Amino acid sequence: SVDNQAIRDEIKALLQQKNAVLVAHYYTDDAIQELAEETGGVIADSLEMARFGANHEADTLVVAGVKFMGETAKILSPEKTIIMPTLEATCSLDIGCPIDEFSDFCDQYPERKVVVYANTSAAVKARADWVVTSSIALDVVEHLVDQGEKIIWAPDQHLGGYIQKETGADMILWDGACIVHEEFKAKGILDLKKIYPDAAILVHPESPESVVEIADVVGSTSQLLNATKSMPNSTFIVATDRGIFYKMKQASPSKRFIEAPTAGSGATCRSCAHCPWMALNSLELLRNALRDTSGEVFVPEDTRVKALVPLQRMLDFQV
Ligand code: 13P
Ligand code: SF4
What we know:
Helix content: 40-55%
Number of helices: 15
Strand content: 5-15%
Oligomer: single chain
Strand order of the largest sheet: 2-1-3-4
Cofactor: [4Fe-4S] cluster
Largest sheet: 4 strands, parallel
CATH architecture of the largest domain: 3-Layer(aba) Sandwich
Distance between the termini: 46 Å
Keywords: 4Fe-4S, Cytoplasm, Iron, Iron-sulfur, Metal-binding, Pyridine nucleotide biosynthesis, Transferase
InterPro entries: NadA, NadA_sf
Pathway: Cofactor biosynthesis; NAD(+) biosynthesis; quinolinate from iminoaspartate: step 1/1
CATH superfamily of the largest domain: NadA-like
Shape: globular
CATH class of the largest domain: Alpha Beta
Number of strands: 12
Bound molecules: 1,3-dihydroxyacetonephosphate, iron/sulfur cluster
Order of helices and strands: HEHEHEHEHHEHEHEHEHEHEHEHEHH
GO molecular function, one term: metal ion binding
């Protein structure tokens, strides 16, 4: 719309003025992803967002995603201003793993390495030995198994269970889940597969075990996007937030992408597979944050210094 165009122009001018760059997750609205593309920013999975932000020379990072992504950027780049369209965009995994309970949990198993998913607060990261994202979790845990380590894993039980199964690691799992991925249903996916027999099933590992089991590819958002480019199939059933369809369709305009069904939704649900917190990121709030330097992310310095250790360990990890 005309209004949108005015806001987009304003954002572009502000990005230049403030020497700022847009770091967006695949689950944000198409309009935000488009802007990131047009302005030299990035659209990425959570590991790539962290790397891109840390390596970029901008003074300000505008993180369009959820709170843990903004905090990760601040932990890695304390000298930069980190702003987000809204600080209310959080994550069910982060909410479900409060630091006090988590710390007590860890204290019960002092001999275990603490591995936490990036989808956690800065305080939880500060209590961990390793931070991982879905794209690197398997490799890190394999490495720990090779070292003979036993593991505490938090907070996503589905991702944790999948890694445990793949690696044979001795893991104690925190009881958390993603409210979006937890809803995908194997039965609904298999029903769709009957209609599209040549469809490949792509699954993010935050999904339940029954869904992961029927996947052709299990991976992070970037890994699933790459699969749609490299696989010959003409149809893909995708069990992750439908925000990723923007890049999937852009990369392969002639392929068909179908949202994996969620509870009670049937095959054509248009409002289920979408993270309510990611959806809070609007163009308008993004513009306001840049214009007013509102939505600035702060992490207490003692927490930041501690959380940096496992985060940096992840970034330095080579397969
Ligand atoms: P990726 O790390 O695969 O991008 O996904 C994490 C996630 O769920 C972001 O909300
Ligand atoms: Fe968290 Fe799930 Fe939303 Fe990702 S999609 S931010 S894991 S609630």
